[in-house]
Amino acid sequence: MRNMTLPDPIRTRQVVQTEVGVLDRAVAVLDAVEHGARTHAAVVRATGLSRTTSHRLLKSLEAHGMLGYVDGRGYELGPRLLKLAAMTMQEPNLRDVAHPALERLAAATGESAQLYVTSVDGRVCVDAVESSSELRTFVPIGEELPLWAGSAGKIFLASMPPEQAEAHIRRARALTSATPTADRLRRQLATVQRQGWAASAGERQAGVGSVSAPVHGPRGETIAAVSVSGPTSRIRRADARRYAPAVVAAAAEIQRALGYQA
Fold first, then answer.
1. CATH code for 86-257?
2. Are 188 and 180 in contact (CB under 8 A)?
3. Start-end ranges of CATH 3.30.450.40 in the chain?
4. Are the beta carbons of 175 and 224 closer than 8 angstroms?
5. Triad 201, 206, 208: Cα angle to 5°
6. Cβ atoms within 10 Å, residue 36
7. 3-state SS assignment for residue 123
8. Which of 27, 140, 199, 204 is the most exposed place for a label (fewest CB within 10 A)?
9. How many helices (H) and strands (E) does the chain have?
């Protein structure tokens, strides 16, 4: 068999030319990393830009949170860009399909309901339905929250490979007096994996409790987390089992609506 030179898999598109050249070049850099982390040299190959220009753009995009740098891997899409994507509903089908289930969950429990997906460093609220109660919790759509505090974060951590979850756990810091320590969080994740839902009380914000369940994708992966949240006067750890069946049912409803077997 004769030797063949395969094309560089990351050279996917040329720089689009408009009247705003610096923006064209910045978008080309973002295009180069959209499918995974790339080194500076790989970005140069993918874009055809000079090393000096690409380096200047990489550092500028990193400073604005559009890119992040990972030692040993290079540049990847950054948290600000992913947050903007969540706010504009990069996956509108998930939100559109899930919203009726969130409305039913909020009505059934009397509490606020939320839908979360993961971001680079945490989780982002992509939809929410407020409780009709005068005393209620509110999570703005587009808000990014940590994985190591709160029930929805535990849902994502419990579904990750151990080394990936551990990286998040090592970054944990106390937000309230109830934020779990690393060892306690590891024990809680084992419980989440066993029972299929998670609970928290005052871990991320004092006075706020929540219960969450996973929405699974076609291969059984966790693609979203459904939550109810409210004041700890109504949602304490002791109350979690009372809310859990409704939250698990709402997650299963969304899963079926997406066409994945619950």
1. 3.30.450.40
2. yes
3. 86-257
4. no
5. 50
6. 12
7. strand
8. 140
9. 9, 8
Predicted TM-score of the model (pTM): 0.67
C-alpha closest to that of 223 among 63, 81, 140, 116: 116
Span 127-180, pLDDT tens digits: 999 998 888 888 888 888 999 999 999 999 999 989 889 988 988 899 999 999
182 pLDDT higher than 80: yes
Average pLDDT over the chain reads 86
Distance CA(117)–CA(129), nearest Å, equals 16
> Cα–Cα distance between 30 and 36 in angstroms, integer?
10
Question: In the chain, which residue ranges form alpha helices assigned H by DSSP?
Answer: 21-33, 40-47, 51-63, 79-87, 92-109, 151-159, 162-170, 182-195, 240-257
Q: What is the CATH number of domain 21-77?
A: 1.10.10.10
DSSP SS3 for 226: strand
C-alpha triplet 174, 159, 260: angle, nearest 5°: 135
Tokens encoding 157:
């951590």
Pairing of strands 112-118, 222-231: antiparallel
For residue range 64-80, list pLDDT tens digits in order. 888 988 887 899 888 77
CA distance linking residue 220 with residue 111, whole number of Å: 28
